[in-house]
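Forum: Protein Structure Q&A
Topic: Joint prediction for protein chains with partners

I've read a bunch of threads here and the consensus seems to be that you should model interacting components together rather than docking separate models afterwards. I'd like to see that in practice. Below is the full input, 875 residues plus whatever partners are listed. Could one of the regulars post the assembled result?
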Amino acid sequence: MIFSYDLLINAVVSGILIGGFYAAVSCGITISFGILDIVNIAHPAFIILGSYAAYIVNATFGLDPILTSIVMVPAFYVLGAGIYQVYYFAFEKHNQESLRGLAFFFGLLFITEVSLVLYFGVDYRYVDASYSGPSWHFAMLDIPFRILVPCLVSLLLIAVLQLILTRTFVGRAIMAVSQDQQALRLMAVDPVRIKRIAFGISIATASLAGAFLIIIQPVEPSVGREYIGRVFAVCVLGGMGSLPGTVIAAMLLGVVESLTSTFYGPSWAPAVSFGFLLVTLAVRPAGLLGR
Amino acid sequence: MRTPAFLLIWLAIAAAVFGLSVAFDNDYVFFAGYVIMQYIVLSTAWNILGGYCGYVNFGTAAFFALGAYSTVAIYKYTTGDDTPSQFSMPIPFLMLIGGAVSGVVGFGMGYLTLRLRGAFFAIATLALSVVLETLVVNWDYVGGSRGAYIIRPENIWLIGNYIRYLFLIMMLLAVAAITIARLIEHSRLGYGFATIRDDELAAEACGVPTLRLKLIATTISGALMGMAGAPFPYYIGFLQPDSTFGLDYAVNSIAMPLIGGTTTWIGPLVGALLLGSLQQIATVTISSAVNLLIVGCLLVGFVIVAPNGIVGLVRTHWRRKPEEFVGRRRVDTDAPGAVP
Amino acid sequence: MTNTDLLQIDNLGKRFGGFVALENISLSVAAGERLGLIGPNGSGKSTLVNCICGTLRNEQGAVRFDGQPLDGLEAHQRTHRGLARSFQLPRPFASMSLIDNIRIPLLYTGAARGTHHAKDVIEDRCAGLLREVGLEAKARHLPRDLTQVEMRKLELARAMASEPKLLIADESMAGLTHSEVEEILTLLVRLNEQGVTIILIEHIMRAVMSFSRRLVVLVSGKKIADGQPDDVVRNPEVERAYLG
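Posted by a regular:
Agreed with the consensus. Here's the joint model:
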């Protein structure tokens, strides 16, 4: 183990930046699991879907992936709304969410992943964006733009989401639906419609997160699986329905993973997020900014 | 039907199946049959915790792999290198050890996570699977990420071909698994499990020690999965962490009971036989990726359209009053293993 | 508070984050008593029940039952000691027939108390309990086939199946018709005559007044009255907070 402050600082900064990206990846779960209580274990698969969408457009037209993903947001929103409708009619209505709902999303995870394998194969895909190559050198820091840009846009995304949730009527209805559905009904607001909108938003974020992912690293269909642990770890650690909490937890996870990877080797990295999750669940299920 | 009669009938069926397979004289039957039997055990085991208690376990692969890697560890210990030695532990003993290791881990995991709600428990099982995989990948003694070779003996006394022996053992384990599942179902334990599934809060209020029962379920389920994993290195010859810990085991052990029916021991059996055979055919005729697509689609389809599985469909259409069947459940409180 | 009290609650307190649900609740219930517990919605009645029964943990105070402290005991252990409750919104085991629903507490509390009954004895007891609440005809039906009042009766019958010393009936009559309320009341009176101490939590004043020998009023997590029903309802504070 070669220890140097240079390495340490770079690992920490890199961890924070990746953490910003992790926050974008997890914010969808913060909404669907933290607020709506839906265990959408297929969320990472939709992120990969977003990655491939960005890849196709980039490979064919050379368009910037982030721009592509913004254009794709409505499509992903509709997909999310559609999935929620099915979920609601099949399970939530009859109170069967626990076993069957989980199995449903697990099935969706598989279907999505395998369909991508059948269509695109298992080769790694990557994009070429204008910031894919260069890095920013500052003092002892060496920050690649391909990590910096997604991180910054991620934080922007979270900020926008937080504004939506706290300042708009729909957003506040979404926050309310997790706490008191009856009160919403009394206000002539249909809780099912609100939840559908919320879930749609949650999948829409996957489009953007997917673009960020493929900018940061090459993607192939099974990459999503590594993220299952990360997104739930971040969501739980961040206190379930809290977006600020998600950001903090994501950066914490990013830093710990980065340090582990730098000083102990990358083969231990997957255990970090999942280990984090187990420890959080065992010790403090309410998370850092607990509910 | 009393349990000993049930057991005898199924042992007879198993003997008949084995006899027919030998008569067919094609080793492929045994290779494919082994996988199907393995899935009967895995789905039945999963169903004890998932179907009976309602707690979804995504970490089937972890318990399966623990059994497999226990075998590898013992193999390395008894042979010292990659060649077969004069002494190698017999499979049944390996199964007991694999089962014990997985059972203990199941108990431990349960102790840490069963106080959580079902959704958190499910995620925790997934996390456990990945953590265990990482530990194994970094443990060079069992081969780490390079994998481990196990040399399968050519023949075994009396039965001949070693693969036939593996098939027979796995089939016997399958019989044991469904017998255990049925025994649980008809006992006080089975009632307790059902209350946990239906309404855990009400169960506690009725005096059901829910945590203790859930721990029992997790331990039994984990142990059976470990026992199914123990012979696997001998079957496959070369054990790799990423396929052994793969999510394929999880999706299959969840899909088979959900498609077959989760409330009784018959469901996982039917699901495993149907889906297992379907997959063997698909892998050979089309590809193994399409295989998983089929499983995923069937899982989602059944979960939405036929939530009680094939068994549920049969019951609704062939019996006039479903509630008569539900009420006809006996309870053997005098039976000697009347569990807590 | 005397030593012969079946249930003793001492300075019980419960908070949810910043919200104080219960504050300094002290209450005692004698064996065989018929206690009524009333209060506006959100006053903490159900929270109190949950703390007594072990579904929730109280941060402050202590609960003693039958002379023994209940602190640290799980809900199922408290049921084994003789505490039973019915739920405000009935929670039957949906996948089981009525008779199986009744069977559960009998099986599990019986085992815990060391009394192993034979199969047919258990079957008889289950049938008997269903008969007492008039549900014998639907013994093999699933709970989804029941009407509102039948569900309530099933709740009570299931609570009784654990052979409790104390039964807490949490709003068993909400949403029922006049005659249905009478049915439930008659049932509860009969249970009390058989020796079961009953705490009745209700909004239907007529029922509470006719049933209770003693009345306790809870408002915003605090006990504001405890005494003879006629005296309590004339208490100005009670009138202001609840009846007025």
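The interface with chain C takes residues 188, 191-192, 194-195, 197-199, 201-211, 263, 322-324, 326-327, 329-334, 338, 340 of chain B (CB under 8 Å).
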